[in-house]
Amino acid sequence: MDQLFDLALFSSALRILTPILLAALGGALCARVGLFNVGLEGLMLIGAFTAIVGNHYFENTFLAILFAILCVCAFSLLFAFLSIHLQANVIVVGIAMNFLALGLTTFSLRTIFHVKGAYYDPNMVGLPKWNIPLIKDIPVVGDIFSGHSPLVYLSLVLAGLLWYYFYRTVNGFRFLAAGSNPLAARTIGIHVRRYQYGAMIACGVLCALAGAQLSLGQVTMFTEGMTSGRGFIALVATMLGQSGPLGVLGASALFGFMDAFSIRLQGVSWPSHFTQMVPYVVTIIAMFFFRDKGFIKDAQNAGSSSR
Amino acid sequence: MNKLGTWLLPLRGPLVAIAIGLLAGSIAILVAGGSIAQTYTEMWKGAFGSFYFFTGTLARATPLILVAMGAAVAFRSGFFNLGAEGQMAFGGLSAALIGLHMPGPGWFVCIVAMLGGIIAGGLWSAMAGYFDVRFRVNLLITTMLLNYIASLFAGYLVTYPFKDKTGSAAMAQTQMLEHAVWLPKLFKGMTVHAGFILALAAVVILYVYLARSVKGYEARMLGGNPLFAVYGGVRRTSLMLTTMFASGGLAGLAGAAEVLGSQYRYIDGSFASADYAWTGIMAALLASGNPIGSAIGAFFLAALQTGGMGVEFNTDVPLEIGAVIQAVLILFITVKFSWRFMRRKKGAVVDGSAV
After folding, report:
1. Which of residues 164-223 of B touch A (CB under 8 A)?
2. Which parts of chain B register pLDDT below 70?
3. Residues of A with CB below 8 A from B324's CB?
4. Of A262, A301, B83, B160, whose Cβ has the fewest other Cβ atoms within 10 Å?
5. Mean model confidence pLDDT for chain B
6. CB distance B318–A96 less than 8 Å?
7. pLDDT by residue (tens digit) across B61-120?
8. Contact between residue A149 and residue A13 where contact means Cβ atoms under 8 Å apart
9. pLDDT for res B250
10. Chain A contact present for B269, CB below 8 A
11. CB contact set of B174 (below 8 Å; sequence gap of 6+)
12. What burial letters (b/e) apply to B110-141, b meaning 16+ CB within 10 Å?
């Protein structure tokens, strides 16, 4: 068992949970205003691709991430317009968004970089690894929490900030009110649509960061469909966490850990098929225990029940 | 409104969506540096240019129609079954294994293999339905997650226990089926096979079921207004399980027909890379679950894909142009949903009931 559990496992779990956590926080924001966002996967994929495009043209990771945020926000605004103003079925729009992302990124990969499958440029610089001065010298904690990309720390900070926003600020209280009872919120003068648009834009920013962590964080490359279901896992993390920031953090940590663990299991000669299955199986099992009844109501509020 | 107007009204949404889709496609073509007219001409030729290309489009449409029927029967009853990919993988794999290992005359093995595909896909899908009715685990998410589990498990089976060890290729696939077990081709030298007839039969059966049968009426009622349906005595649990079995069974049949009619073996990842499952689901969304509309939608999407191949072959514009048009089209087709939604919302205010 020693070779299965060590500090590096927790360190890689932290790295893996970051994109899931960022996207899941975006999903939580949307779920709280009654928009069940199935399109996280697609938004994340666009983020991953545009971050690489930005990096290619600006040769600066900060500008690349900014570019990714702008592009993804454009798509999340389109999502918001279709589902809020045109009252289209949120789930259908989300599914279509995932397709559009897959088609567009593959198409653009061919037209911009003239390659098929994956784009990799050895000259490209990825996100830096931060060694945190004091923490890195603490024995166990330092091994786990030091030497990650800035986005890893940002994601943890954002989870805390979102918790503060939801439960400690007046504006956050109105945000929650707009989602839990839109009609009542409207009668006391809350602009529900404004909060819905705000949530979608924030979700776009978070998904862009999630995508950037994928394509610039560990490896500096883009492959077709590189999100490979992480957006859906983030969606489940949103549900498991009951759309509360800390719950989402816990759920994402569970998935990050299971994913890191499944990579480790390959080392002890499990067929890779089964180790890759582990996160999905755990997700389904977890859903038996944390049934989010609130989601059904959310979905009905949005006029798009899954059942 | 005059008669022609009421007849055209349901077509307005799809036509607007197709126009926007083609517009977005034109922009993409310009960005890629191609000529719009030439690209669309090549696309048309690639899909319908000759009898050979036309039958190729029909062959491509076969699994799409079957998956679309499976998705449509679930949508109509108000369930989102997004698990077609995994159901197809299990259906195709079961058909391949039965075809390889069952003794007997070829036609008999072929029929049993297809039934096996239906049962495998159906049970896998009904399991998600059971989780939902018994444990209230969200169907949308489980069907989606079961895709990954099914594809990986099928991948494991063809990588280790049932791997084709006769050939020199190191591909993860089963052995080739014997010639007698194959689904016959409809025309000599063409790719379209007898599965297409099965797909058309499925469309007709589903249409009659939904429009004319008591169970179909109950299903539509459940999809339209679940509370009213349950109040009216529809047994949701049994209807959900049978609907999910039928839905997954049709996806399983799609996989089986693809294995028996065109690939003659189960190849790991071949369904996923062709995007049969998701395109079929989109076709069903396109027509909001109407069987005939979904079939036309599936044919149209198949034409976009085979047309995309023609574009790739003859111009500099990549094949994914088809995928871009397709996705934009679906994105805007949902506006049609909005008209229905707004009507329903008005009704809800009148009767004052809380949903």
Report:
1. none
2. 1-12, 167-169, 334-355
3. 100, 103-104, 107
4. B160
5. 85
6. no
7. 999 999 999 999 998 898 889 899 999 999 999 999 999 998 989 899 999 999 999 999
8. no
9. 97
10. no
11. B93, B96, B97, B100, B158, B162, B163, B164, B265, B266
12. bebbbbbbbbbbbbbbbbbbbbbbeeebbbbb
> How much of chain A, in percent, has pLDDT values that exceed 90?
28
Residue type at B134?
R
pLDDT tens for B335-346 read 654 455 445 444
The ipTM value here is 0.81
Interchain CB contacts (distance < 8 Å): A and B: 143
Residue A99: which of B149, B330, B337 has the nearest Cβ?
B330
> What is the reported pTM?
0.83
Measured in whole angstroms, how far is the alpha carbon of residue A116 from the centre of its chain?
Answer: 25
Average pLDDT for A21-39: 91
